[in-house]
Specification:
With 184 residues, this protein is an alpha/beta fold. It has one domain: Rossmann fold (3-Layer(aba) Sandwich). Helices cover 30% and strands 21% of the residues. It contains six helices and nine strands; from the N terminus they run βααβαββαβαββαββ. The strands form two sheets. Strands 4-3-2-5-6-9-8 form a seven-stranded mixed beta sheet, sandwiched between helices. Strands 1-7 form a two-stranded antiparallel sheet. β5, α5 and β6 form a beta-alpha-beta unit. α4 packs parallel to α5.
Length: 184
């Protein structure tokens, strides 16, 4: 598979309307599993500091129960850093681990975002759908598989700490698998 653009990009007004309220991870069963798994991996990384600028309801950081500085943000209002991640990353301090959980597929220029994160973080914990080819989700611009993302990660300067994996949550709707990357 090669990277697939699933839909046209939204105007700034359309994007603001789409993300007007805080994302709730607990609305979908499969999201609960993915958030818990991502939080477990983050906890195992033992970060000295962490940023999640697409945190939704903040569940990944909250469930990880970290005892380190954490910087949270989202496009929806209510966080320390509010606005599109492509902008808020510029204001965020450098951190040990950057969490990019189910975000990359939502941005117009995922390559530029990966490079921007590289400039702010020593390590990266990234999750994204694997092999998405339909435009079922009105928020997703992109679909890719592990090999596509491996090229993108390498071009941005990221090196996997452990091999990237496909995570298949116990509840398989609407997507079948997610990619999980832990990089330095």
């Amino acid at each position: 598979m090669t990277r697939v653009q699933l839909r046209s990009f939204y105007s700034p007004g359309e994007r603001a309307a789409l993300y007007a309220s805080t994302y709730r991870h607990d609305k979908w069963e499969e999201h609960k599993f993915r958030v818990a798994y991502t939080a477990q991996l983050l906890r195992e990384m033992k970060p000295e500091s962490v940023a999640d600028l697409s945190c939704g309801d903040g569940a990944v950081i909250a469930q990880a129960e970290l005892l380190c500085p954490a910087y949270l943000g989202d496009i929806a209002p209510g966080w320390q850093f509010t606005g599109p991640i492509e902008e808020t990353i510029l204001a965020c301090p450098a951190v040990d681990v950057f969490v990019c959980s189910e975000t990359l597929e939502h941005v117009e220029n995922p390559d530029a975002l990966l490079r921007a994160i590289r400039g702010k973080a020593r390590r990266l914990l990234l999750t994204t759908p694997d092999g998405e080819t339909r435009n079922d989700n009105p928020e997703h611009y992109w679909g890719w598989d592990l090999s596509d993302l491996a090229l993108m990660m390498g071009d941005a300067g990221w090196v996997p700490e452990v091999p990237a994996e496909r995570y298949v949550p116990p509840v398989l709707f609407p997507y079948y698998a997610y990619q999980v990357w832990r990089c330095r």
